[in-house]
Design a protein that fits this description.
CATH superfamily of chain A: ABC transporter involved in vitamin B12 uptake, BtuC
Distance between the termini of chain B: 56 Å
Largest interface: A-B, 40 and 35 residues
Shape of chain B: globular
CATH topology of chain A: ABC transporter involved in vitamin B12 uptake, BtuC
Number of helices of chain B: 15
CATH architecture of chain A: Orthogonal Bundle
Radius of gyration of chain B: 24 Å
Number of domains of chain A: 1
CATH class of chain A: Mainly Alpha
Oligomer: heterodimer
CATH architecture of the largest domain in chain B: 3-Layer(aba) Sandwich
Helix content of chain A: over 70%
Distance between the termini of chain A: 15 Å
CATH class of the largest domain in chain B: Alpha Beta
Structural class of chain B: alpha/beta
Number of helices of chain A: 14
CATH topology of the largest domain in chain B: Rossmann fold
Number of strands of chain A: 2
Shape of chain A: globular
Radius of gyration of chain A: 20 Å
Helix content of chain B: 40-55%
Strand content of chain B: 5-15%
Number of domains of chain B: 2
Order of helices and strands of chain A: HHHHHEEHHHHHHHHH
Strand order of the largest sheet of chain A: 1-2
Chain lengths: 332, 369
Amino acid sequence: MLNRKFAVPLLAVLPFVVALACMGIGRYPIPFVTTVRALLSPLTGVQVAATDSAVLFSIRLPRLLLALSVGMGLSVAGAAFQSVFSNPLATPDTLGVASGASFGAALGLILKANLLVVQGLALAMGILALAITYWISRKNGKVSIIAVVLSGMVISSLFQALVSFIKVIADPQDTLPSITYWLMGSMAGATYPGLALGLPFIFIGSLMIFLLRWRLNVIALSEDEAQALGSRLKVVRILIMGSATLVTASCVSMCGQVSWIGLLMPHVARLVCGSDNAKIVPVSMSFGAVFMVLVDTIARSVSASEIPLSILTAIIGAPLFVGLLRKMGGVR
Amino acid sequence: MKSKFSFILLLCLSLLAGPLFGQGAREAGSVAKEQRTVVDHNGDVVSLPDDIQRIVISSLLPLPSVYCLFEGDASKLVGMHPSSMAAAKNSILPDIMPDIVNVNSSFVSGGEMNIEEVVKLKPDVVFYNASNKTEREKLKAAGIPAVAFSASKWNYNVIETFNAWVELLGEVLQQESKASGITEYANEVYAFIQDRLASAPDLKKPKAMVLYTNKNGIINISGETSFGQFWLDSTGGENIAAHVPGFSPTVNMEQIYEWNPDIIYITNFVPLLPEDFYNNVIEGQDWSHVKAVKEGKVYISPLGMYRWTPPSSDVPVALLWMATCNQPELFADIDIREEVRSYYKRFYHMDLSESQLDRIFSPSREAAY
């Protein structure tokens, strides 16, 4: 493996380098030199054609920022849930958060609310889903992991049913296609006001998990073992679950359900750097951001028609994962 | 104990009664009505009663409008799709057939037909969209004669598609159209436009975009196989998405900048008006860089007897309208309002007022829902 000295700055810089490179890719052709000049224009004050600058700064930049944050956020949330529940199949939706957020968004779409309201509703419903899950699993002031996972499943299927119900009553001409497309995930609607509402939650949540990453190893121990080590663990566990929820709900509220990435990236990180959560968390964040940026760039620029994200994350993610799995010699 | 026994008895009786009475009803029906058959657009041979008094049109949104003008009134139409109703209410159709707005449209919800609600309407025949295989199976299972009408069988040629619908209506209803001659006139208009386009030296075709939906940053426009492609091909325009496969592919803003269309056509399926583009008020999108918007060439598709993008009985005037938008100099002698007025007089025996003409050419936002 790479020397630790190089690995840390590399992981931090890699997503931004990739995103910068992707700034130059898209359906609207802008020569490389023009792209560089336009990107530097806020500093140099060089005049750039209005359309070029609109494409770069109003279309590509918000979309790339969204992809970076969502990729990072969903991966770190996935890593957190997988270790909190000691379950390699845990995803950001394990607590019903993504389904709750989807329901909020579908509700907003059917009420023909504007985009910010849709996003706000999604965020609120995602957090509500966690609150209900937590409330159900609490008994005599104690919360067991099994109860949390089970009630998460229940809440998740309940909200999925509600989404289906909204799809049934939605106008098939007008509202239904946008709900369906939205559920498959798309970053085409990225705007600065939307980012301003959603990104802070992703950053706060991710930062929280990043700072608590050492604790994840302890939490991954069995409940009795962990309990023996101290009672503050309960607080840490709730903090981590809350942060991961905030991140997930905010991601879903901005770009719909992007499947796979939250499950996949922590495993890729594990294949690369072993089972130490202190390493898995930052590696997942970096890889997730890179992966999402690449996938969304493909979605928006390969053909004249947009490709829904979840189709691409699975089609690209599956062979990638299989390749890694075979090369690294199995899951550790 | 006793109540349990009587419940079981009741259950047995009802299970027996179903097939017994059902059988009786079917036999009586087959004796009373003479059987005749038509071949529909799916190639199915459909047995029909001689006397058709109650008709339900469960899918294929433009068909109720075409049917009403064929029949001359809406009295036999007992059910239609809610989106057909939305178009009908905002169209000119109720001006000559006021009772169309009272037709039942509650048997479809969420795009799904409820078969028992259809049975309740006691239709003699149901017309449905040929591509809707689920409805075909449901109607077959219910034993209701169902005739399929196709929208895609004629390569989105709106004239041929409209003509095929009228021909099949004629076979099913065994009568001449009350608005006969529309296909012939459409062919005349089509030939007139092609002649004039061919006669123009170095004809420049504008690049045009036909907008189908624009919601939450997701934009759909007419693709390679669509009505939009046919309209533009036949009226001197060029579809910007002529090489994008599909009926209404999803595209992004950047791609539209790259195409930079000269003209934007807003269909009546999207609740936007030209002002929304000129004032640049569409959330999250900046249209001010697009040529069509800069040059004031954003047109909303008119709504006459039906929306003018799919096939409808307004096809001939719709062709003329789009030709005047695509090639204003070449068709400078066409007064489109006058053409529509005389067309409505000739085929629908209707004198359009100025305000009715205004309604046709500037449909409201609500017409899209």
